[in-house]
Design goal:
mainly beta; five-stranded antiparallel β-sheet; DUF1989 domain-containing protein; binds zinc ion; DUF1989
Length: 200
């Protein structure tokens, strides 16, 4: 019997989620226009993590396409995009938002995806000396023809979601991005839901 669980990621926060190989992972934006940063890790036998640069290289794409996998730093498939019930786009160029970004924008001590990642990992007993770049689901930041990078408001509608299949047993971290000024998340931070369906 398929077994389902739903995790709510409150606005401007992050959650760690363990999944098993074959699990289906829905990442849902209930209110719309909310970016969700996604990381994936394996810790056994050695630490490995989803690498957006390896993924761009191996899939020969700037942004994930339906049926494409996301690869680790060690070039192992970690997740596959099996359903895209969102107009996208999904970014694989930007780092996570961090305290330095908000300080540059004039907002010191602001919640941010990097700190939320590190706090979620700390609860799993993991401390990283670096921050892998995330997959920024629903982030509307396609490059301009002249190569400039501009973040625009997400066009994900309420209820827009993606479905990923776990290709390994993984530790995921999912955030609801913390940018609470226009345009990234439409000017307001809302929650993200994650639904895990195990088929085994
Ligand atoms: Zn963020």
């Amino acid at each position: 019997m398929p077994d389902s669980r739903r995790i709510v990621v409150p606005p401007q926060s992050g959650r760690s989620i363990r999944v098993s190989r074959g699990d289906l992972i829905l990442i849902i934006d209930p209110k719309g226009q909310q970016v969700s940063d996604l990381w994936a890790f394996t810790t056994e036998p050695t630490l490995d993590w989803l690498s957006t640069s390896q993924t761009r290289d191996i899939t020969e794409r700037l942004f994930p396409g339906l049926g494409d996998s996301f690869f680790s730093a060690a070039a192992k498939p970690m997740l596959t995009l099996v359903e895209n019930a969102s107009p996208g786009p999904h970014d694989m160029l930007y780092p996570a938002c961090d305290s330095a970004l908000y300080e540059r924008a004039g907002f010191p001590n602001h919640p941010n995806c990097r700190d939320n990642l590190m706090q979620a990992l700390a609860k799993e007993g993991i401390s990283l000396p670096f921050t892998p770049d995330p997959v920024d689901l629903f982030q509307n930041s396609l490059p301009e023809p002249d190569g400039r990078l501009v973040v625009s408001a997400s066009i994900n509608p309420p209820g827009g979601y993606v479905t990923l299949r776990a290709e390994q047993d993984l530790l995921l971290v999912v955030t609801a991005c913390s940018v609470d000024y226009y345009p990234t998340n439409g000017g307001i931070c809302t929650e993200i839901h994650v639904e895990i369906t195990s088929t085994s």
